[in-house]
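Standup notes
- DV: blocked on the single-chain target, sequence here:
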Amino acid sequence: MRQSARYAGVLIILSICGFCATAKIASAVIVEGRSSTQLLWFNDIVDGSQQMEAAEYLRASISKIDSEGKLSLLGYGRLSYDVKNGGELQDRLYYFYADYKGFLDKADIKLGRQFVNLSAGSALLDGIEADVNKIGPVGFVINGGRNVVFGEEKELTSHLYSYGAQVYYTGPQMTYLDISYYRAYDYSDVARDIIGSSYKQYFFNLFKAYANARYDLTSATFNEVLGGLKYFPTLNLMLTAEYYESYPTFDATSIYSVFAVDKFKEGLFRADYTLAAWVDIGFGYSHESFGEGGHAKLYEVGLRFRPTLNTTIGLFRDKRTGYPGDLSGYKVYAEFSHIGKWKASAGIDYDAYERNDMTGQETARKYWAGGRYLFAKNISSSLRVEDNVNVNYTKDIQGRLTFDVDF
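- DV (later): unblocked, structure below
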């Protein structure tokens, strides 16, 4: 499995190199990115033993490769090592592709490992995407390739292949509308077959309407529907009304596709108000439906203070009643920036909940603190430590130490 994943990576690199060879090389190539070296420690979820992992994340882009500045290369990957248990060095390539803007002055083309996102579906592909966007207010996107599947420790051999197409319109008042189609194959069997659409538009500088929908052709049902309206009566007040429903659908080739599931529905109202330059107020109410008579209500209120230019304090309260249990909690945090070369934050999350009538009330608490120190304009280090106390752990200390270099 690992060899086939490496062969796929080699093919990506060779394809990109061939793509780059067609461009006239420029003299002033620009290389930018970030190197993030990290040390992470946490408790094993199975036996609670302390674990430690070292990782190197590298994100880079190379632009101005050709004389016209149309071609660039982008990549992001990770190397990790289990410090406590040893073993092999684990690698993961998240994306690595060539991006050519203005191909024949009509299209943008991406070749290689990339994340593609259409209103009908999204995937991480070893493949190609073309966005024809220089033909007026209407454009279309096509993509296709082999789906990338990551396991817990390594990249798995994938037998999933997918392609998609999307037609979109962009107009005045930030109007956007698209209709798309996405299909995935497991070997030669159809695993996903979905039609999707997305829409947003502003009206009179007072309203923003938006909607998304996905229809699963295999199961003949909508697996996701979202519709909402935002109203801006004044510059410092925003009102939101939203409806969302989802019906979980699985790959048609998966054993899970035969299991019965319930549709989830949620109606939401939210108000966000900037009372003054130093304080924001937010209030939210949601009504949730889980099918078969299961309902719940959720109330949220929050305050965010800025007593000084470099200080932010947040206070949040939530209360939930109904199926499958009640919850009451709060979150408090404080952030301090520009304390010399330091930026620091700390907070407490507290929840008291009742899963059902049999368990009684339980509590979960999280205490966390973090900070970032700036050594130079492009060099910094950060530390975050948290402790979780709940029904499973009396002490669950975990953290992350990073050393970041921007170039």
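- Follow-up: DSSP finds one helix and 24 strands in the chain.
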